Amino acid sequence: MGINIISHNIAHTYNLCGLLDIMRMDDTDIVFIQETSHTTNELTNLVQRIGYSAFTSLDGDKPGVGLIYKTSIQIDEIHVWQPGRLLFVRIGAISYVNVYAYSGNNNKHERNIMFSETLFRNLSTKSLLPVLVGDFNCILSNLDTTDNFNQKYCQALKDLVQTLDYTDGFRKLYPNNLEYTFLRKNCAPSRLDRVYLPCHLEDKLVSICHKQTLSDHRLVSFDLDLDSVPDRPVRHSAYWKLNISILKHRDFEQNFFKLWQFLLTKEDSYESTQIWWQELAKPKFKEFCIRFSQVLSNGRRGLKAFLFEALNQATIEEDYEEIKEIRAKLRQIINEEAMGFIIRSKEKERDDEEMASVYHHNKECKNGAKSTLTKLKIGGNIVDDPVKIEDVVVHFFSSLFNGHHRSDANSTSPIDTGQPFVPDFSLLPDFLKDLGSIDKATADGLDQAISLDEVKLALKSCAKNKSPGLDGLPYEFYIKVQDLVAPVLVKIYNNQLEAGVLIPSFRKGVTKLIPKVGHGTIPDVTQVRPITLLPDDFKIMAKVFSNRLTPILDEVLTSNQLCAKTESNILFGATDFISVIDYINERGLNGYIVSFDLFKAYDKANIQVIAKIMKCMGFSDKFIGWIECLHKDIQTVFILGDGLSAPVNITVSVRQGDPLAMALFIIFIEPLLVQIMKQVVGLFIGRIKQANEAWVDDVSLASSKIEDLEKISILFDKYERLSGTVLNKAKCKVLGLGGWQGKQVWPIPWIKPAESLKIFGITFHSTVQETIKETWLECEDKFNKCLLSWKAKPVHTLSQRAFVLKVFATSKLWYLAQILPIPKKTIEYIEKLVGFFLWRGHLERLPLQELYLDTKQGGLGLPNISAKADSLFLMHIIRILRVDCPTRDHLMYWTGISLRDILPEIVPVLRSENITPYFKHVLNLIKDSSLSVEVRLENLHLFKSKSIYEDFTSTCVPPKVEDKFNIDWELVWQRLNLGVVSSDAKDVLFMVVHDIYPNKQRLFRMGKHNTGCCPNCRGKIQDNKHLFTECTLTKSVWIFVKNKLVYNKVIKNLIVDDFELLMLASNIDEAKKDHFSYLISMYVLYIHKSFRNDTRPKVNDFRCFLLENIPSTLAISV
After folding, report:
1. Contact yes or no for 1095/103 (Cβ under 8 A)
2. pTM value?
């Protein structure tokens, strides 16, 4: 069997230079890459969607080597012989070494040592020599370059090849051909990328060729006649999903309209519109989208093949203008194809285009890994047999979705009884009393037929980029064609509701299983969360009902169910518990907080019981019947590895993934919460009765009465018999407070004592101070791990790292900051990590206070940690003060005396004389903050988080550099942040403008240079002005830049202040600001790179540099 192998230097790029397309077209088995900065995880994430795995070896923070191979190939050995340079791989009896030699004359010594010592020594230990493949960065024959043969020749490699009897694969088949793999303007074309075959494999070479990609290296593709690749199919997705990028194509609407007109002519041939929809319309939609995608894909594939061939020809002819144009077209096609990953990555689009490709690839593959279960712990053993996994999954969820699980007196975990659950409705009266109810007018409003406006509102409010159901058609499809199909959907929905039966496609979902254990841990079947992907035409109807039901929950619910309250949120419950802890400790009382865990809460919600509860609440029989219709005769299949399981019928469960699920579960659990609130004593803080708090299925209780535990245990037992709700007793815990701190013996044996409880995302301890300290320590750890996870990822510019800090890292702080004051030590620790991550140990850095400024003011727009935390905390307090609720009573109990002057209307009669540190912090923020809006009851609605944050940061000082130079800084910052300035150019120019660029003068001030003088200009201090505009090495290029500014009519003549020009502060034609910023930023970047690479700046080189990087939107002559 033949095996196709590729070797390619991807030139430090992250999109693999179009390599994936060639791999797909050639059905490549193995790929060796050089000059990659991908980690193993990053590269795997990029390639696993097309059936490949990967491994990389990097040289510290420098690029290295990598291996990409089909998942069907068994890798027997991988050894790193030299990090980032030599990678040994064995596949069966054949082995390979991926070589990435040191480049350039400056690294000749290192290159010779690598060949003559490291590589030779390792090869000498092998009885069968491996294939050598890669970028050797040198040549052995004058046929392999057009110039400078002696400089590029390497005797050490020649000795190795001759001593070990290796054969150059290309020269074996093409002894005299002149072909080159490295082609860069102003560099002599050379064949640096080669394959060397040991003598026992010399006759196995079938073919070898070079192919052009977006890299400045052509790849080497060769075929060996080997039996090394098992004939195993590549894995594919379990079911088809629409690539939403086709919806933007100019021909989509016109072609779909033709299909729609045809389908309407067939509607009368079917018994009903819904059957027509089920049997003809939806299948035709899917067929149309698949064919449309294929046509576009084939068109792109043909266009890409043509462009790659054109690129190859342009490279041979050294037509660099043509090369630039063709590469731009190829990049555009590849970026458009990346849009296909967004529907699976399920994330909002990012503005930062440089991050988007890597971001979406990573998210897609992470989500794919989460939602395709390929391994499962069964009986304590890790199993990857798909048949065994399917048997266990189907059996467990068949039992779960049919109510087989019950509590057991002899076990803390629920057991599978094998019997369907039958509600004990004799207990119903005990739980239906004291429930809230809706009035008749509200009930009648719910009974109306579904309208077109409701369907359009549902479409408008649906979250985008979500995985669709089995039909593969997402919300975006229905939004695109809504003017055509929405009226028909209305008819279909109402017909089904009137008949009381849904069409089959509405009743079947596909369930992905999300592990609830840590990354890398294999779950058992009880440790996965089932998320059901339902057809989006069904979800639109369910969304209509959710939009009707959700607004009235606040009216009908009387328990402490926080998630259904319009004005409150989960943090209100956390504030209540903080008050409880402070109160018990301040008064020296006995108390506790207990947390209850509901076993598979949503999946134990019984629709029969929900219907009874809704009837008691005043909902009409008609509306209840519609809810039951949506849950009648439903089933699901599971995504397992590469396929789908056998179907499972569902008689119990409000499916997670259904827009109605949360509202129905809240109704389902309401009778239990009401009775807990009525029957337990809890404790009183002033006149506030504090008992249970709930957020959906998260139920907790605070009390000073030990007998409350027994009462609540009885209530849970009775509610299980009525509804099927089961406690996971092994996860129910109690935290002793005050005199009961550390208490180990409690009257309910299955409630285990704990030193802390995780409730509402807060790790509560026995004191508020410890709660604050330990919870923030946990957050610090998460923040640190987040930054560590990005350390090796492609975030090489300041703007990219600032993006990571704003979007991924600091976002982990803001939830806690709303409820727990952030300690000073935590702020210092976080800011220290931010500094390390942002500057990566470089000397050229600015104080964080300057980076907190907006980019329009010279900063990076990073959030000010302290100010942001305080503003979020204060906003939470203001939300509490707005609402007449128990949480406000808690707050005013502690702060009422101090706030009686500004909030006299809500000061309680009973209030604390002592104020604990937590509530002192509340008072300090309210009273000491210089806010633009006065804190008064009538003004509370005016406060917004953003305005509070702006008030807290209004005294920020401008960058220090603004005091050094008298120029128009507003213009400077504006021009620095124009879109034509690339991220890497902006990095360098940012340092220059802020006067922190590491010139010799700056290094001297930091004790890193002896004189601060320019080494090229005797006696001249090397500051930025000298380095970039006056130095003998840079002056000719600087004059060229000025001439081009004149030629492009950016400035009138050459008589301008060079320093102001360099700083982007010159008076120019504002219509030419893009030209100005582009030329100056690229000049600064070019000079920076030249000095870093120890090369002399040249005008011709700079002109080429400009040509290669000009944005397609900028018309400029260079």
Report:
1. no
2. 0.75
